[in-house]
Write a structure and sequence with these properties.
Blueprint lengths: L8 H7 L18 H6 L10 H8 L3 H13 L17 H14 L40 H7 L5 H4 L21 H4 L7
Protein name: Putative dimethyl sulfoxide reductase chain ynfE domain protein
EC number: 1.8.99.-
InterPro entries: Mopterin_OxRdtase, Prok_Mopterin_Oxidored
C-alpha cells in the first residue's frame, strides 16, 4: 500500500504522529517511524513485503497484493478484527497491524469507516465463575499452556515469561479452561 501510494497521506499528515519522518517527534530515534519499519529502513532492516508476509502466513503473494489494493482503494472501508488474531504469542502485533489499516487509508472518523477495533460489545454479559483466593502465585500466559504441559519444569521467567518465580518448577497436571477454547482450537494436535 505504501509503495503504490494507496495510503491517505493528507489524513496521516493532519491526524497522525509517527507515520513518517515529517510527523515523527524530534526526540524519536532516526527512522523510528512506522513507514521506515514497514519499508525495512528501521532497526530490524526487514522490509514487510508481500513476499515476507507470505512466508509467515502461507497466504499467496498475489492474494496479499490483491487484498492490499482493495483495502487501499476502498472508501469507506469498515475494517474490523475478530477476537482470534491476538490470541497467540505476539498476537498483539497482529491486532496493531489490523488497527493500522483504517489509519493508513483514512477510514477513521468517517461514515462507514472504523478504527480497526472490534465492534461494540459492551452490553454482552459474560458469566464467570466466582473468584477464589489462589495460594499459588506462579503463573504463565495462556498462550504457553501447551509448552508448560510439554516441558513445564524447564520454563523460565526470562525465556518463557513465567511470573512469580524464576522458573516453573512443577509440571502441569490439570488445566481448568472455562468458556474459552482459544488455546484448544489454536492447537489442532489437541483435538486428535
Amino acid at each position: 500500500m505504501i509503495n503504490e501510494n494507496l495510503v491517505d497521506q493528507p489524513f496521516l499528515d493532519k491526524y497522525c504522529v509517527g507515520y513518517d519522518e515529517k510527523t515523527l517527534p524530534a526526540d524519536a530515534p532516526k527512522n523510528g517511524h512506522y513507514k521506515a519499519y514497514i519499508l525495512g529502513e528501521g532497526d530490524d532492516k526487514t522490509a514487510k513485503t508481500p513476499q515476507w508476509a507470505s512466508q509467515i502466513t502461507g497466504i499467496p503473494v498475489d492474494r496479499i497484493i490483491k487484498l492490499a489494493r482493495e483495502i487501499g482503494t476502498t472508501k469507506p472501508a469498515y475494517i474490523c478484527q475478530g477476537w482470534g488474531p491476538q490470541r497467540q504469542a505476539n498476537g498483539e502485533l497482529t491486532a496493531r497491524a489490523i488497527a493500522m489499516l483504517p489509519i493508513l487509508t483514512g477510514n477513521v472518523g468517517i461514515s462507514g469507516g472504523n478504527s480497526g477495533a472490534r465492534e461494540s460489545t459492551y452490553t454482552i454479559t459474560i458469566e464467570r465463575l466466582p473468584v477464589l483466593d489462589n495460594p499459588v502465585k506462579t503463573s504463565i500466559s495462556c498462550f504457553s499452556w501447551m509448552d508448560a504441559i510439554d516441558h513445564g519444569p524447564q520454563m523460565t521467567a526470562l525465556r518463557d515469561g513465567v511470573r512469580g518465580k524464576d522458573k516453573l518448577d512443577v509440571p502441569i497436571k490439570f488445566i481448568w479452561n472455562f468458556k474459552d477454547l482459544k488455546r484448544t482450537l489454536s492447537r489442532p494436535e489437541v483435538l486428535h
